[in-house]
Structure formats: C-alpha cells, structure tokens
C-alpha cells in the first residue's frame, strides 16, 4: 500500500530525515517507534505532502505521489490524523464529520460511521471539543474515513489518554483494519503498539534502523525500550 524510498527532509539547514526507506503492506497496521525528536512526525508530514523541504519517492498503492499536493494525495485515499486531532470547536460532532469533502467512492457514509462509532451518534449534537480526549480521537479518525481514506496516518493517538481509553482506541484500529483500511501510526507506548500492530519500523536520528515483525519486537521489548529511550 505504501512504499517509501530514500526520503530525506530538512528544516532550514537542519536535516531531520536521512534516506528513509520502508514499506507498509495493504491491510496492515504498522508503527513508527522512536524517541522524541527522531523525525517521526516530520515523516508523516512528508508522506501527506505538507512538509515541503523533502526529497525522495513515495508510492501509494502503486501510484507515485512524491510531487502531488496534499489534497490530491487525500483524493487518492491517504488520510492524516495529526496529534492535535484538528477538531473544530465551533462545530458539532456531526458538522465536524460533514465538513470535509468525500474524495472518492470509498468514503464511509454517515450511517456506517455512527454504526462503527456509536458514541459519536450519541454526541452528534455536542460541540466537538466538548468530547473526551478518546472521543475526540474517534471523531478525528471517523472524519478521515468519511473522506474515503484507504490508508490512515495517525500521530500518537493514545497520548494523554487513560488506560481504558487507550484500549478503546486499540479496538477502533482493529475495526478499521477489518474494513480493509491500512494504518501507519506513531506510537511511544510500545506495549500498546505490540498489542495491535503487525510490523514496527524503528526510527532513530532520522533513519529507519530496523523493520521488525510484531513477534520479534515482543521478544526484544526490553532491549528496544532501552535502545530507543522510550
């Protein structure tokens, strides 16, 4: 579904990513794991086309999107959920869901969203920012699914959430996967990541240092936690 080849990125003179290459298979949940400042968020922004100082090649489902603007990547099925979730405070839950355009035929209708996320149906008349942190994360994911995303890029979806809400977010990603959506997420919580993902891409100093199946990460969890400093 996603093929990244030789991606490098800068902020001014500072190089943040250096020759990053990895793949994410269709229908897979994969993670980017690394300490703060390793370049994880910058990499997601490069994939989505919202970080301009980038070189390298990015393919989505066999299509080269390296030079396409973000809105065209979205129409091809790439969706981005930033770490701040991007919920509009002046809009209700339902208005937040209906705001972005449906980019293709894969877009989830509002009824399917409410069936999958019943709490959003219950809260649909409430202001989006009046939801709990976990509910706001659900809303952010659901909004992207409505646009027709076949692949989700999500930045630290469990940050600041209670253990119960973390479990709920994990259940959401499993449901999304059952519907055929591929997921790449940044995650600091390695225990959560190994409970969910098929493969992990370990990033340090702007480079992918290892790409490991979930079973190997579980076996080496203590070593990797120490190495990554998380």
Per DSSP, the total helix count is 10
Strand order of the largest sheet: 6-7-8-3-9-10
Main beta sheet strand tally, sense and closure:
6 strands, mixed
- SS-based structural class? alpha/beta
Indicate the CATH topology.
Rossmann fold
What do you see in this structure?
The chain has a single domain (25-51, 77-228), classed as Rossmann fold (3-Layer(aba) Sandwich). The mean pLDDT is 89. It has helices at residues 40-48, 70-75, 93-98, 110-116, 118-122, 133-147, 163-178, 190-194, 214-219, 221-228; strands spanning 2-11, 14-24, 29-33, 54-60, 63-64, 78-81, 151-155, 182-186, 199-204, 207-213. It is α/β, with parallel strands linked by helices. Strands 6-7-8-3-9-10 form a six-stranded mixed sheet, sandwiched between helices. Strands 2-1-4-5 form a four-stranded antiparallel sheet, covered by helices on one side. Helix content is 36%, strand content 27%. The chain is globular and about 45 Å long.
Compact description:
With 230 residues, the chain is of the alpha/beta class.
Question: What are the main properties of this structure?
Answer:
230 residues; alpha/beta; Rossmann fold; four-stranded antiparallel beta sheet
């Amino acid at each position: 579904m996603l093929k990244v080849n030789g991606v490098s990125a800068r902020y001014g003179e500072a190089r943040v990513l250096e020759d990053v290459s990895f793949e994410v298979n269709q229908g897979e949940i994969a993670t980017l794991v690394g300490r703060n400042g390793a370049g994880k968020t910058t990499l997601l922004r490069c994939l989505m086309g919202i970080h301009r100082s980038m070189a390298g090649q990015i393919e989505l489902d066999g299509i080269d999107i390296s030079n396409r603007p973000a809105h065209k990547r979205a129409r091809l099925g790439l969706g981005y959920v930033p770490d701040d979730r991007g919920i509009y405070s002046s809009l209700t839950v339902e208005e937040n869901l209906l705001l972005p355009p449906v980019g293709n035929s894969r877009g989830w209708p509002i009824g399917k969203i409410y069936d999958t996320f019943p709490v959003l149906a219950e809260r649909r008349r409430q202001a989006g920012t009046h939801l709990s942190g976990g509910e706001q994360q659900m809303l952010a994911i659901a909004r992207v699914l409505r646009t027709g995303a076949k692949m989700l890029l999500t930045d630290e979806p469990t940050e600041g959430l209670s253990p119960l809400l973390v479990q709920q977010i994990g259940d959401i990603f499993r449901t999304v996967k059952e519907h055929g959506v591929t997921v790449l997420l940044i995650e600091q919580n390695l225990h959560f990541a190994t409970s969910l993902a098929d493969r992990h891409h370990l990033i340090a100093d702007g480079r992918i240092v290892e790409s490991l199946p979930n079973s190997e990460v579980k076996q080496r969890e203590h070593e990797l936690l120490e190495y990554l400093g998380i």
